[in-house]
Amino acid sequence: MFRSLINYIFPPKCFACNNFTNDRDGICASCWKKCKFISKPFCLVCCKKFEVSFAGGVDVCDVCLFSRSKIDSVRALLEFSPEIKGLVHNFKYNDKTVLGKFFARLIFNNFAEEFKDVDFIVPVPMHKIKRLWRGYNPPQVLAYALGKFINKPVIPDLLIKKSLTKTQVGLNKKERAKNLQGSLEVNEKFDLNSKVVLLVDDVVTTGATSNECAKLLKNRKAAAVKLVAIAKR
To answer: Which of 67, 95, 152, 230 is the most buried (most CB within 10 A)?
Structure first.
């Protein structure tokens, strides 16, 4: 009754287009139809979408066959299309943290089976100055929401961004990796020996940040590092 009254006085709006919707925690039917979910067939390592299904059950792309990525698997919910750019932007920059629950629910519905062996969840870290300026760390918001769905503990300070780096926007993969060098560290008070870590990010572009995080975690004897994100460019 009370919720119905609130919705009548303050009708919920879509977090993507700002039009009215029936869901206070999500998006309208029109924007929902525009979402391009990443579904099989895709590369089981990097989550690159295959245009067609290959005979013989090919499930790894040519890049991942020969790469040295430290990430064992990537799972992304959506293609980073122009239609969902505003939705992700609102979550990352415009204080629409309620979208964390919305995205987490969809991630759980799509990938829950793949997270059963995870020991704990770790968000990609943000430097304290950048966090102070923005007010929150989007991957951490998503990590806590996802932790409630899959019933796994979240360790927000396992990875630490110890130095402030310039923005990764506009940099290629090599430049991004160089920009990150020496800026991250693992909190030594946590035991990672033989643990499976679920790393959480908002958008995967080149994978340079997540790969650097995974490298540090595996240097501390983590058995595997899986990555989950809202979208993949």
So the answer is: 230
